[in-house]
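This protein record is not my work; I was only asked to verify it. Where you disagree with what is written, explain briefly why. This is what I was given:
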Amino acid sequence: MLYPTADGARDVLPDGLRALGATVDVLTVYRSVPDGEGAESVREAIAAGDVDLVTFTSASTARGYVEAIGAALAVRVPAASIGPITTDAARALGIRVEIEAPVATIPGLADAIIAAQPVSTRLRVAG
């Protein structure tokens, strides 16, 4: 089995397949590199108190966030995480994770965020 993956990816899937008897060739085909575009506007918004929550879909997004805006600002905003691995990585960076998706999918993350909000903040009435 050929398993194309990201540079630095965990070996959970290939190890699990090997445990089931598969021969697995892991091929690194890409790497995630934060570009920092927009970091200044995010720093300004956080400093102004305009950011209520940040979301992380992987450990690398949490690391990229801290690299882009700096540790001092990164820890000022609570976070929502897609799952336990991402939560552990964010917390190791000093980020306060207040919401964790019970199902590690984007819809699961969105549902967890919505469920965590008081009903009064979910009801928006256009006037």
Summary: The chain has a mean pLDDT of 89. The two ends are 57 Å apart (CA to CA). Residues 59-69 form the longest helix (11 residues). Residues 59 and 89 are 5 Å apart (CA to CA).
